[in-house]
## 1
Amino acid sequence: MLELGKMQELTVVRKVEFGAYLGEEANSKQTVLLPVKQIPEGTQIGDKIEVFLYKDSKDRLISTVTRPALQLGEIAVLRVAQTGKYGAFMEWGLEKDLFLPFKEQTRKVQPGESFPVALYIDKSERLCATMKIYHYLRTDSPYQKDERVSGHLYEISRQFGAFVAVDNCYSALIPPNEMYGDLKVGDWIEARISKVHEDGKLDLSLREKAYIQMKQDAQRLLDMIDAQGGALDFTDKASPELIREKTQMSKNEFKRAVGNLLKAGNIEITQDQIRRI
């Protein structure tokens, strides 16, 4: 069976002026063309050649000896070559760029950007890319809790959080309460594993363990106070929303940092300000 989107070893059934036709066996009736410029020198009828099957610009099945960046069901980081009326086109090592439909984008992409995508076959039997890679990711990572990992952020959900492809192959999530800063689809994330679920999926935190993070937050808060001329115009009694907006900390994290600075004698708290001493 000729398999679209996969590398497979096929037999040269016959040769013509413009190429060679390949099949599963020497007498196969179902064949695919390998263009003449792709044929290895010295190839004879009956020889076996490893090829990748895709469709040309006229939607005809064709083969190539070039191995693309990914095969059916796999994930790879590809670069956007150009955008068009119905989607984008991504470089993947073949002459014909890979189509990324608008409906398979988790955000609008621009030429020159790179994202992890998976390869699938659409309803029209064409090979396409998708940025919705959740179901293609593995859950058998070798990592343990508190280890540091990295990967691409590929989708953001207000309900569930930010989805990350650790090492571009393992399933991970930054829960909403761990989302700090201006996170965007396509960002390269470095994080700490806060939990390994029974099903193998990972929860990530952009922050260190509490006792380490408290010292870092305290120093960052002190730097912030200095940058504001020696005082912040809000205290730990401010709303959680305001504190997160101003400091990228939760209210509890902010209070721990303030407590650390008070204990060290670095600050004082007035009715509506935190001042440097």
## 2
Amino acid sequence: MNHKIAFVAARSAEARDAAKRLRQRYDEVSPAKADVVVALGGDGFMLQMLHRFMGRHVPIYGMNRGTVGFLMNAWRENGLHQRLERAQRVVLNPLLMEARSVGGDMVQAHAINEVSLLRQTRQTAKISISIDGQKRLDELVCDGVMIATPAGSTAYNLSVHGPILPLGAGLLALTPISPFRPRRWRGAVLPRTARVTLDVLEAAKRPVSAVADSTEVRNVTSVTVTEDTTHALTLLFDPEHHLEERILKEQFLS
């Protein structure tokens, strides 16, 4: 089967050269007409493309022309149609962040990896945490806190000692960033259906920003995070490098 392919590339010379070579070998259509998008770059570029095509419901097959490439397949010029035919699908639902600022503005943004609240100044943030309308933590004194998806659990979440979540677990990770009080609180694992509300205490004195992947909202007073089941994002992986296997391997790396 010959797929209708659109090639998209990051700005790096390596990614642009890869796109040029693929276009010389394979027919290409515009992204609007494609039944699969081949993304050439790194993980950051893949996240950009997932956001860009969120409303198109078109599967994305990444090939690593960046650095880590956790969300990408290995770069190979040959046999693209065969690889696409064999590829296994991973369907992700993004998080929906609703952030209210000190000025009263409400901003919505999607996150595929995580939603993070981060202190803006030298002073620690003070944040209260409610789950499904019930207060669970009156005051977390910290540098920040995040809610991570399984796909994002091996990224920023892992670097601040949050848990790695299998894709099929139906869970989210709620992870503090440099907690000071309560010092021994290491976070929580929540069902994917949870509605998480983070209220910023002393917002004028201790300003906090909210970040959903690459979308940042400054000076927030409250943030609500839910899983958006109305959007389904499809990634394609070679069977031997499936995302579930990569997440499992991360738990055994030294």
## 3
Amino acid sequence: MPSAPEPGSPSSSWITAYCDGGSRGNPGPAGYGVRLEDAHGNKIEELYEFLGVKTNNFAEYSGLLAALGFALAKGYTHLRVVADSELMVKQMQGKYRVNSPDLRPLYEEAKRRAARLDAFRIEHVLRGKNKHADRLANLAMDKGTHRTVGDLLPGGPASGPITARQPPARVSGSLFAEEPPSEPAPPLKPALGFVKNGVVHFVEGELPDGTFVTITPTRK
């Protein structure tokens, strides 16, 4: 009996990509997650990326593109995609039209990449059967918005200094495999302020558009 292939080794066997994307606000801070498994259910790779302020559907397509890009870059030829976005799945299956001008380029790029594989299929599942990808997508959004344990406590963070941070660099898996890495952004100077009645007030410094902040409670 032939031995099972090593996890992550390219072959003509089917691999499965569980894909998910989300946006907190739609549009809002968005990210995708992808878990790739071999034909035996072994993990090959996990990909996730913060995308900035985007829509849910943009994030879903970004995860699909990351899965396709990974398969092509690593030499896999048979890819099965599992996603809980009914819209994206049925658009890729040709059952729904792509009317959004924001999604059209992503859809067309996904079709081009899928055509480069020997075999490709995509299927829809309920969110409960896509937990790994959902976890990774939320991890990407958490990292992008710098959520901390204090942010998740009832009542939110207390008043305290506000530290400005640049959005994080891309993590494993990029939207377009051919895209060169971007130059790191210069660090920002701290901006001081306070929180009162849920409103952030700055008393020193300023933040450029699109910058996220972390609020650190002051401990006496």
## 4
Amino acid sequence: MPVLELDDGSRLTEGAAIVQYLADKAGKADLLPKAGSMERYRALEALTFVSTELHQTFGLLFNDKTTEAFKAMAKERLAKRFDVMDKQLAGRDYLTGPAFTVADAYAFTVVNWSKYVGIDVSRWPNLAAFQARVAARPKVAEALKAEGLA
């Protein structure tokens, strides 16, 4: 479970909540649109999708106790979710439109796990292009290199 420990020692958990907190603290409306706007609700919708439909399912694939049969079902579930994402990304750069948000950062991270579980995202051309586009962002490329993932 992702955990962010704050300066006061308190902790915030769950990826979607953490990225919202960080975006709000940064004060950058381009990372998470302003409260009350439809753009923000679309970003929250995407965050929730990544958290519940992707992140949770990938968790099963990284669990040593998950049977091979159940892992195969999890991969099928991910394929269906990737179908949804591929359609959503058709004709747009990012999940909610032309602007990169924390939802895109979260999605990129989670979808990137595909290569560690034997899922080739190239069968979803819009999703593969999204992954390449986000990976090419200077700060993302820098982070991937620092983590030894590039």
